[in-house]
Amino acid sequence: MRNRIKRPLPVWIIFLFYSVLSLYSILSVFLITSGVFPLSFEQQAYINRFTTFDMVIGHLVAATTFIGVFLLFRLKRAALPVLFLALGINIFSSGVFYLKNDPATVIDASGFLLQAGGVALFLVVCLYARHLAKSRVLA
């Protein structure tokens, strides 16, 4: 019989938070682009600037994040590379977005700080997963 390791509370919190966030992200983009939510002219013009690449990479970030936190919830060692991959895709997509768009016209300082805080928080999640892997909590 295999020794069962108790799932740490932070793993539950990470799983619930990022699962809801990832699924909300995918669903909201679908609902916005399908026209379910009415948008102002400015909002519609902003959405129309998104390319297929932007849409695919956004869904890829959300899906990879969801898979990573699901693997973390299952206490699987495979969570570690998937979470770091999600972090890398997120940073890459943000960099591409800011290279293509003037940040001053698409986001204000508080939005930029919020985005940077989100990336920093996800980095902490990745480092926590690495700690769990080194502690042999992840199998």
Features of the shown structure:
mainly alpha
Task: Kindly describe this structure.
This protein has 139 residues and is an all-alpha fold. 77% of the residues lie in helices and 0% in strands. Helix 1 runs antiparallel to helix 3 and helix 4 (79-100) packs antiparallel against helix 6. The longest helix is centred in the last third of the chain and has 26 residues, at 109-134.
Q: Work out the helicity level.
A: over 70%
Q: What low-confidence regions span 5 or more consecutive residues with pLDDT below 50? A: none
Mean pLDDT: 89
Reading the helices and strands in chain order gives HHHHHH
Strand content: under 5%
Task: Report the count of strand segments.
Answer: 0
Kindly provide the radius of gyration, computed on alpha-carbon positions and rounded to a whole number of angstroms.
Answer: 17 Å
How many separate helices?
6
Global geometry: elongated
List the helices and strands and how they pair.
Layout: H1 9-33, H2 41-48, H3 52-73, H4 79-100, H5 103-106, H6 109-134
Helix pairs in contact: 1-3, 3-4, 4-6
In short:
The protein has helices at 9-33, 41-48, 52-73, 79-100, 103-106, 109-134.
